[in-house]
Amino acid sequence: MPYDTNAMRAKLKKMMNGRAADPNEFRVHKIAAGAEATYRFFVMPPIQAGDPCAGGTASRSMDMCWIPFGQHWVDQKPYACPRVASENEIACPMCDKGFALMKEAKAHGAIRDKISAIARQWLPNQQNVVNIYFTNSSVNPDEYHGRVLYFKLPKACFNEFTACLQREDFGDSESPQAFGAFFDEMAGYLFELKVKCKDGYNNYEASRFLHQCRPMILKSDGKTADTNRIQEAMNQRHDLYRVCDQPDIEVMKQLVKKLWDGDDSDEDDSGFTKDEVVESHRVGSSHQSRPNVGPGVQRDRATTISELEPPARSRSLMEETEELGSTVHTRATAEPYRPVTPEDVATSQVEALKANSKSVEDTALLQFQTTRRPKPTLDDEDEVPIKPVRSKVKPVSEVVVSTTSSKKPQVDDVEAMLMQLDED
After folding, report:
1. How many distinct helices (H) and strands (E) make up the chain?
2. C-alpha–C-alpha distance, residues 335 and 86, integer Å
3. Rg (Cα) of the chain, in Å, rounded?
4. Which pLDDT belongs to residue 223?
5. Torsion of CA 253, 255, 261, 264, to 10 degrees
6. 137, CA 20 to 30 Å: which among 17, 21, 226, 379?
7. What CATH number is given to the structural domain containing 43?
8. 4 pLDDT exceeds 60?
9. Which residue segment(s) compose the domain that 69 sits in?
10. Together in a domain, 143 and 73
């Protein structure tokens, strides 16, 4: 029976959080310190809607030989940015929030490092995706010979692309340069990708176009264009709008709510629900466990808060007694707990009067100490104090205060900041 392998691949990519290795994507392996890697390929022309391509026909037309692609990373998962994909025609909630925070931080004199931190959290990493054709050059690995792959351009390579497209002539005859439509399949320029290790990362600054203009594929004579093979390669271009994830505005709105408002789960980190935490703070026991009333004594769970609170008059007497430096000790009985009855109170008052000849005020104090709840202690094996609820994301005012500095920002506008961030 026929199987929908494309649907299976899409499902696999989703299961692996967008990190599934696509065999049609060219990825440069990490270069070790002191090592170097070189590749040579042609950049292929833009594809038009309806053109034959790998796996069918193209869904959309491309204006340039590349398409912009950006991803927001939240909880180590990528999400396509609608602003980047639409070339600033569609607003992105994540980007809007990031730009607003950056402008506000800049207005309050935040240093550049703080603004960079906001950009890393709220703005996408942007790349440009192209179709490339690998020649049979000896510098290319054998498995790449004659293949058409798509490539997410590093920033340094994209800068070379734009510089070449803007040049109007080859320049000095002693050091000619590629210029114009470098992606022309019949008269293009071979791109040499040089990869070195710099500070532990791949560096592409030495990459450049070779200055000789030639057809993408030559016949065996090495001079004439092989039009048949060129057309076959053109039909193997990839629909870049399909291989790149498409953005979802609603998903972006949810991500903003998640990052800005925090997790809306009903439980906090301590395992208590919001209602339980609020109730605990209301009764003033957020940092207390149940009272420890002595060995062998177990409080009745049905005892209400009002039964445990001391009377207002007794509290006043207690404060007066503490000012005089007197101390009253209470002892927990080993008998099972039972609610205090009026008879118990009367008996304790009579015994206290007989034994100590206390005054009426002292008797009231003794009654308070008999019924007052002992000071609670923490039982590590039974209870854990409730942690105070803290917002997971700082309000804008707090972000601004924490990033305030007397040092002025080095640039005048947010877009210039972003350009500097990309260069870094």
Report:
1. 15, 10
2. 77
3. 37
4. 87
5. 100
6. 21
7. 3.90.198.10
8. yes
9. 13-81+124-262
10. yes
